[in-house]
Structure formats: structure tokens, C-alpha cells
Amino acid sequence: MRMAYTEGELLQRAAAGNRQAFSTLYEDCLHDLYQYLYLFTRSKETTEDIIQEIFVKLWEQKAQLTAIRSFRQYLFRMARNKVIDHIRSRRLHHRVTADLLAGADASYADCDHKTLTSQYFHIARQAVEQLPDKRRLIFRLNTEEQLSLDEIASRLNISKSVVKKQLYAAQHYVRRYLREHAELIHLLVAFAYLH
């Protein structure tokens, strides 16, 4: 049964830790938020991951919900920023991957660019190495062996929900680590591709 509260009241209650109020805010916006994100991602899984990231962050910072004037506007601004981050990350990933695949034939004139790319991957490897053992294994099975959540769960004899939770935590940590440690390298690599 739906609670008969205004958005402001729901935000107040959610900020105080009321999960039902938070769920109501979530359910009110979920459909439109999904449609909005899917326009850009064209991926059900990516869209769901971004929505999960947004709402996990909102819950972790729930005390700040009381300062929000329009939850919908705030939510869609977060979504826009996440989409921009996702697109930038994907573009960089594709460019770096293409560069590595072409590495055997590439000329050594692009030495500075290769150094930057190498630094980026070094930082990414550092982030992965800092993950707890089980989380690191799940992350590698997904990214290096391209295993699905079901395949990882079967191989490790754990539930799919545990795999998803661990993979989400690993991805979140790696992305945050890269943002904190490789922001300059991102800019330099992007600059190198423009010249």
C-alpha cells in the first residue's frame, strides 16, 4: 500500500533512514529514469547498473536528501552525469583497446601516447590488486574471461546475487580509484588522441 506523503515528507523520512519512504521515491521515478538512461546506453544491464549506482549513492548520503528541492530534477541530473562518465569511460576504453590491439604494427613515433596508456593500465591494475581476494577473482572472471554472472556463480558455487553484489562493489571501487588517481592521465590520453 502506497504511503500518502508529499515528496518533501518522503525525503525527510528517507533522510532519517526510512526504507519504505526511500523505496517510494525509487518506485516513483524508476520507469522514467530507466527510459531516459536507456536512450543513451542502449543496454539493459548498463542501465540497471547505473540506476543501482545512483540509488546506492543516494542511500549512502541519505542525510543530504532534506536539502533537495525537486527529487526528480536532482535524480535526472545525477543520471546525466553518470551517462557522461559512462560514455567517456567507454570511449577511452575502446580507444585504448584499439591502440593495444594495433600495438604490434604501430610506429614508435607515438611513444608518449604509449607511455600514457601504459600508466593508465598500471593504475587500473593497482586498483584491481587492492580488491579483496574473492571480489578480485569475480572481477577478473567477468572482465578477463568474459563470464556472465550465472557462469561465475556456477564456477564458484555461490549465488548469482552474491556475484552481482561483489562485481558491483569491485567496479565501483575500480572506477573511483581511477577517478582519484588517473584523472590527469585520462585528460592526457584524450588530448593525445586529438593530436
What does this structure look like?
- With 195 residues, the chain is mostly helical.
- It folds into 2 domains: 1-83, Rna Polymerase Sigma Factor, Chain: A (Orthogonal Bundle), CATH 1.10.1740.10; 107-195, Winged helix-like DNA-binding domain superfamily/Winged helix DNA-binding domain (Arc Repressor Mutant, subunit A, Orthogonal Bundle), CATH 1.10.10.10.
- The protein has 8 helices and no strands.
- It has helices at 7-15, 19-41, 44-60, 71-101, 111-129, 133-143, 149-156, 160-194.
- The radius of gyration is 20 Å and the shape is globular.
- 15% of the residues are buried.
What structural keywords apply?
195 residues, mainly alpha, Rna Polymerase Sigma Factor, Chain: A, Arc Repressor Mutant, subunit A, 2 domains, globular, transcription, WH-like_DNA-bd_sf, sigma factor activity
Which helices and strands, and how do they pair?
Elements: H1 7-15, H2 19-41, H3 44-60, H4 71-101, H5 111-129, H6 133-143, H7 149-156, H8 160-194
Helix pairs in contact: 1-2, 2-3, 2-4, 5-8, 6-8, 7-8
Give a quick summary of the entry.
Keywords: Sigma factor, Transcription, Transcription regulation. With 195 residues, the chain is mostly helical.
What is the CATH fold-level name of the largest domain? Arc Repressor Mutant, subunit A
Please mark out the parts with pLDDT under 50 across 5 or more consecutive residues, or reply none: 103-112, 189-195
For this structure, the quaternary state is single chain
Number of structurally distinct domains: 2
Query: What percent of residues adopt helix (DSSP H or I)?
Result: over 70%
Q: Which structural class matches the secondary elements?
A: mainly alpha
The count of β-strands is: 0
How would you characterize the largest beta sheet? none
